[in-house]
Amino acid sequence: MNVLLMAYGTPYRREEIEPYYTDIRRGHPPSQELLEELEERYHLIGRSPLNEITFAQAVRLEAALNASLPLFLDPLTTSPGARVRGPARVYHGTKHWHPFIAEAVRAMAEDGVKQAVGVVAAPHFSARSIAEYRERVEQTLSELGHPFEFRLVEEYFDHPGYVQALANRVAEQLWRLTAPKSAFFLFTAHSIPERAAQDGRYQDQVRGTGEQVVRRLGLRHWDTAWQSAGRTPEPWIGPDVNEKLEEVATRGFKEVVVTAVGFPSDHLEVYYDLDYEAQHTAQRLGLRLLRTRSLNADPDYVEVLRDLVVREWVGFASDTAHPEAIEKGF
C-alpha cells in the first residue's frame, strides 16, 4: 500500500520566504511591500512548525497502517534481506515548497509504485485546495508517462473521527469559560476567491463540520467565518474572522471559542491570523478569545487519515479481484 500525504508547505529559512511566496503567486514575485509583510508575520510568530508536523503525520500514518495491515500474506520463500519494510509506505509532498508534490511523485515512480492513494491535510474540498493538489499529481504523472494508478481522498469534512477529534478539543475549552452556555463558538477555514466558490460546496462543507461539532456538544451560539484571504484585487469569501468578532461583540457576547476546522495543523495562518491578529481584535473589543488546539499529528487525527486511506485503497480492487489483492498493491 502506497500513500502520498500532501500539505501546503512552508519555508524552512528566512531566505526561502521570497521564492516560496513567488510559488504561491504562480510564479509572479511579490512586491517588496508584500514580501516585507509576510516576513514580518513569520517574525511575529517565531517559526511555523508545519513542516515538522506534516513529516510527523507521515511517519505516524505509515506506522498506523503497518500496524493494522497483514504483514505477510504469503509464506516467505527466501530472505527479504536486512532492510525489512511493512506493506505500507507513506510519501510526503507539499504544494508550495520542498519536497514538492512533483518530487514525491517522481520518487514513487522510481521506487516502482504501481498504485497509490493520495490524501491532503485539508478536510474540505474546493477548486483552490484539493482540486489543485490533484492537478499537480496528475501533471507529474502525465510527464512521467503514467507510471502508476492514483486515487485521491477528495474530502472528509464529515468523517466521524475527524468531527469527534474537533469536538474533543472544543470540549476542552468549555472548562475554561466563565459562562459556557453564553459563549459564542466560531469555526474558521481559509478564505478563497468568490469565483472559486460559486457552487457553495466549500462553504457548505465548512458549515457542515461546524454543525456536527455543535450537535455533539449541544452548543447554543455559533457560526462560521473565514481567514487568511489573499492580497489580490478580486473579492474573497467572508466574513473575515475579525469582522465576525466585531459582530459578536455588538451582540453582547463576552467569550468566544474559535476552532480552525480548515487547518488540521498549526502553522502561519493559525498562529498569526488567530493567535495574534484575532486575539488583538478581541482584546480591543473586550472579548475573551480562546482557541482550540490543533489536531497536528495526534493519534486521533492519524487514525482518521489511516481510515480514509484504507477506504480509498479498496477502490483499486476490481469486482473479480481476490480480496488479498486489496491488501498487497505494492
Q: What's the SSE pattern?
A: EHHHEHEHEHEHEHEHEHH
CATH topology of the largest domain: Rossmann fold
Uncertain runs with pLDDT below 50, 5 residues or more? 319-330
Mean pLDDT over the full residue set: 93
In the CATH classification, which architecture of the largest domain applies?
3-Layer(aba) Sandwich
Quote the distance from N terminus to C terminus: 5 Å
Helix-residue proportion: 40-55%
Write down how many β-strands occur, each being a DSSP E stretch of 2 or more residues: 8
**Mind summarizing the main beta sheet?**
4 strands, parallel
By DSSP (H or I, 4+ residues per run), the number of helices equals 11
Structurally, how many domains make up the residues?
A: 2
Describe the strand arrangement of the main beta sheet, using strand numbers: 2-1-3-4
Roughly what fraction of the amino acids lie in strands?
5-15%
Roughly how many Å is the radius of gyration?
21 Å
The 3D shape can be described as globular
Question: Quick one: CATH class of the largest domain?
Answer: Alpha Beta
Structural descriptors:
single chain, 330 residues, alpha/beta, Rossmann fold, 2 domains, four-stranded parallel sheet, disordered C terminus
Description:
With 330 residues, this protein is of the alpha/beta class. It folds into two domains: 2-155 and 299-328, Rossmann fold, CATH 3.40.50; 160-291, Rossmann fold, CATH 3.40.50.1400. Helix content is 44%, strand content 14%. It has eleven helices and eight strands. The chain has helices at residues 17-24, 32-45, 50-68, 101-110, 130-143, 160-174, 201-217, 241-250, 268-285, 299-313, 323-328, and strands spanning 2-7, 89-94, 115-120, 149-153, 184-190, 221-227, 255-259, 288-291. The strands form two sheets. Strands 2-1-3-4 form a four-stranded parallel sheet, with helices on both faces. Strands 6-5-7-8 form a four-stranded parallel sheet, sandwiched between helices. The model is unreliable at 319-330 (pLDDT under 50).
